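Re: your question from the hallway

Yes, I did run it. Sequences:
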Amino acid sequence: MTALILRDVRLAARAGGSAMLALAFFAAVATLVPLGVGADLRLLARIAGGVLWVAAMLAALLALDRLFQADFEDGSLDVIALGPLSLEKTSFAKIAAHWLTTGLPLTILSPLLAVLFGLPAQAIGALFISLLIGTPAVSAIGAIGAGLTLSIRRGGLILPLIVLPLLAPAVIFGAGTVLSALDGLRNGALPLLTAFSFAACVLSPFATAAAVRLNLGS
Amino acid sequence: MPVSVETKNLTCIRGGRVLFRNLAFRIDGGAVLCVEGANGTGKTSLLRMIAGFLAPAEGIIALQTNSAVVVDSEERGKHIGWLGHHDAVKPQMTVRETLQFYGALYGGDGSVDAALDAAGLARLADLPGQYLSAGQKKRVSLARLLICKRPLWLMDEPLASLDTAGKKIAAGFVEAHCAGGGIAVVATHEPLGIDCERLVL
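Structure:
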């Protein structure tokens, strides 16, 4: 399984890979919003959580349609599927590699971008934690969509339609975590986000494997 | 090591058309089965069925090993070395990295250097996949079969796009594999130039 994770991380980091692309997209969106909204720092601080969460999610979705499709098209997926790893473990490895190359770097970059929104320190901490906990759910649920659309040309257009509604809880609880930190309230959203993310990561490999299995037989 | 592969009453329906019906054959260890037939007669579908990707409309495929009879498709997959129509070579990875990855994934103890030499790829080892020709990619696939060390080889047009020397290498690989007790099912339009049983679809 490590071999597969390492390969995917290596591919994402090389030329034409998705890691830098997602980061650049995230930074560009997060920079444009304050320019568009204007210099009202109180307003910016209130929308920061929501905007950064949505931007991070869209950035993570950018490369998601290629998660299985690239391997499907060049025949790698056939060879991987016949290997000793079950498709469930393969899916888990793919999710892990996707998170390591998108979710994790996005999380690390987020405090820097939060400064653009004038977010106070305690809320930046909440944003960082919520992205760290929540982005694995984006990769996990996104993988189900990637598995379903792997044989569809331009599947990248359908993928967000399948995945984004399922990710609504992550945005609600993630942005909620930032808001309640901003208001100094007790934080009820973070435990819910944690539960959601945990459930997604545990259940998704099974759903993803079923979707991939279906497409391999087509 | 599998002792034999046997199909009974195998039927393949693709897109509402019956490609073959009641197909029955048996291959024993050490034998090569060449599957022949015009375009669209179901050669690739047959290979994908044996690999377990495609469920047969009817019939069973049984793999007999020393200890058990394997009927379950995913279980069967663990005995299969796959050489498909696509070559599973990533443009961003070098030949050596590609083979090392599959070696690690399959947990094989096959030597990458030995496989590179055998496939005539030693000089290309550090070249990224994007610079390889179609024939060179096919050689990488052949080298992968040596590294993955599976007893049942399923090969879809292994000679396509290979030069004369490459074709000799491919036939030599199959011959050596079967001499060691392995089984190869080869879908091909060109004769391999080695002793084989024939199945015409």
